């Protein structure tokens, strides 16, 4: 397996760690300019200690990454991936500095709720979503009927993930997941994703050139990670391919299948924005164990706190954002306070947890819910 000359420099930029194993690389870009005097010649003959240390570090990183890829190759062969597939992919894998930077600065973590929601439930997304709902109504309805997921939620996820399929997917899935698999923060998870990506290619589900995605390796218009693709992507148009890159009907059905697999209830919505009584941001919160037992897929999200019947929230002074009473239904709901200080929040139902399986962030699930409301009007 060969590694390109610029590869070591990329590794150094990434700040990835690795041991020295004797791999060396020539650095033409670091050669000195022609000397103009004997003194210059003398000065340039001996590289500085910093240059030497940098070159040694780059060589060490390249050697460590090559050794790591050799381990990937060995395990992939043991998993039944064909050698031809590995030769098509592994020699060309290049770590990407920006992937690590993005991984450390995800907007779901860094941005306040208001900024996050305003950016993702923008007027453009609302307007475009309404147009896309009408333009693709037949395909959306077909997916909705098969899997029991309302079309507006399918379209909202599509809109937030790739602006309704218009966002360019420029990252190699293999480069992205290999970068994160080699990094220490989530190495085990992304090593699995790398093997899943290799399996997709090996089984002919997608071509090498088609396997483009986001910086994290999420693929196609619905932004499925490779493992999710293998489990939830579907061939709804019956052409023999689970094409989440170019087939809208496969995209819609795959999103619906994903949500249904995690308990989606087509008889419910996601939740609603609400007005809280004075001080309610503090007094209405509680532990999950203090209330109703939530639905199966919600039990893992302890930070959603206490679940109460909708009518109990009504008795505690919670109202629709307009000030009107809550719906007269008996539905378990949890309270998401969001940015504190405005006496507002969100009561969310079990479908909120299904969306969180797509992306485990309260902000993300709220954005999907709010956008789905906007584009259905």
Describe what is shown at a glance:
With 377 residues, the protein is α+β, with helices and mostly antiparallel strands. Helices cover 50% and strands 6% of the residues. Among the domains are: 7-92, no CATH class; 171-258, Helicase, Ruva Protein, domain 3, CATH 1.10.8.350; 271-348, no CATH class.
Question: Which key features would you list for this structure?
Answer:
377 residues, alpha+beta, Helicase, Ruva Protein, domain 3, two-stranded antiparallel ribbon, globular
CATH architecture of the domain at 171-258: Orthogonal Bundle
CA distance, first residue to last residue: 56 Å
- Indicate the proportion of strand residues: 5-15%
User: What do we call the CATH topology of the domain at 171-258?
Assistant: Helicase, Ruva Protein, domain 3
Backbone CA Rg: 25 Å
CATH superfamily of the domain at 171-258: Bacterial muramidase
Number-wise, the strands total 7
Total DSSP helices: 18
User: Helix-strand pattern, N to C?
Assistant: HHHHHHHHHHEHHEHHEHEHEEEHH
SSE class? alpha+beta
CATH class descriptor name of the domain at 171-258 = Mainly Alpha
Task: Indicate the low-confidence ranges by residue numbers.
Answer: 1-45
What does the largest sheet look like? Answer: 5 strands, antiparallel
Q: Which percent range fits the helix content?
A: 40-55%
The overall average pLDDT, rounded, is: 87
Coarse shape: globular
Largest sheet, spatial ordering of strands: 4-6-7-3-5
